[in-house]
Write a structure and sequence with these properties.
67% of the residues lie in helices and 11% in strands. It is mainly α.
């Protein structure tokens, strides 16, 4: 009879541990499935944002600036930033003045 009770206690303990093991495995499985789901949705969102950014970059018109050489120092700068004087282009007022002084001294 004692052997039978000991056998039943061992079976009950084994059932308890098996139940706990199944519970832990179930929780781990749910965590793994949640990770896979979140990883897929996150990567899909990242791809969507990257596609939007690419479209924005492609849609922006590319402006071409004309560059000209300074008549005094021959440095090339955008035409909008320079100064015109008598069909000559200068990068600064200082170079315009220097050019005019040099021209007057001749």
């Amino acid at each position: 009879m004692i052997y039978l009770l000991a056998f039943i206690n061992i079976k009950l303990l084994q059932g308890y541990f098996v139940g706990r093991l199944l519970l832990i495995l179930g929780i781990l499985f749910l965590v793994w499935m949640g990770y896979r789901f979140l990883n897929k949705t996150w990567s899909a969102r990242v791809k969507e944002v990257e596609q939007r950014e690419r479209k924005k970059v492609q849609e922006q018109p590319k402006t071409v600036q004309q560059v000209k050489a300074c008549a005094y120092c021959k440095t090339h700068i955008p035409e909008e930033e320079g100064i015109y004087q008598d069909d000559h282009f200068f990068c600064s007022y200082q170079h315009l003045d220097s050019y005019l002084e040099h021209k007057q001294s001749k």
